[in-house]
Amino acid sequence: MERLNNMSEEELREEATRLKESLFRLNFKLALGEVDAVKTVRREKKTLARVQTLMRARQQQA
């Protein structure tokens, strides 16, 4: 979480894009039946939510 707080707006947008792409790929792995992908999907979703929350909070402060 501290790493995310230290990121700039541009870095947060890039991180959100990366996480969305990662989730897209992980959903394919889930469809193929890889069991380990479930834990990774949950973690990626939570991280994406944190990034989006930080971006909204910074927009409201501005």
Notes on the protein architecture:
With 62 residues, the chain is mainly α. The protein has one domain (2-61): Helix Hairpins. The chain is 85% helix and 0% strand. It has 3 helices and no strands. The two termini are 21 Å apart. The mean pLDDT is 92.
User: Stretches where pLDDT falls below 50 for ≥5 residues?
Assistant: none
Number of domains: 1
- Total helices: the number is 3
- Provide mean pLDDT, rounded: 92
Using only C-alpha atoms, the radius of gyration works out to: 13 Å
How much of the sequence lies in strands comes to: under 5%
Number of strands: 0
Describe this structure in a few short sentences.
The protein has 62 residues and is mainly alpha-helical. It is 85% helix and 0% strand.
